[in-house]
Write a sequence for this structure.
């Protein structure tokens, strides 16, 4: 099992969804770890992060609630990440435009003088 572990690999949306579904259905961390090819420690840490972000309740939550909350949260995060990337790209475009504009104005002033 240790050869096929996904150590130091980013969690995919599918893996997070499966993790929450398995946990909601009462699977142990050991079984989830074997199924997802992760360590038990990785499972515990990811569940802790999800609980901290209020994606996962600790007790008495049905599988559907887990799934709906997870998917809603992942969509919100995806939209936020997409917006941050767009803002970063726009910032570069504005900076490049400003620099080109300064050079163009300088060139025009040089021609006038």
């Amino acid at each position: 099992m240790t050869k096929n572990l996904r150590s130091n690999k980013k969690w995919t949306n599918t893996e997070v969804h499966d993790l929450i579904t398995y946990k909601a259905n009462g699977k142990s961390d050991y079984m989830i770890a074997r199924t997802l090819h992760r360590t038990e420690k990785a499972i515990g840490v990811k569940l802790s992060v999800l609980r901290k972000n209020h994606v996962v309740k600790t007790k008495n939550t049905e599988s559907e609630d887990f799934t709906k909350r997870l998917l809603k949260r992942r969509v919100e995060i995806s939209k936020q990440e997409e917006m941050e990337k767009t803002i970063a790209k726009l910032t570069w475009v504005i900076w490049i435009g400003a620099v080109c504009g300064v050079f163009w104005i300088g060139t025009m002033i040089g021609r006038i003088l």
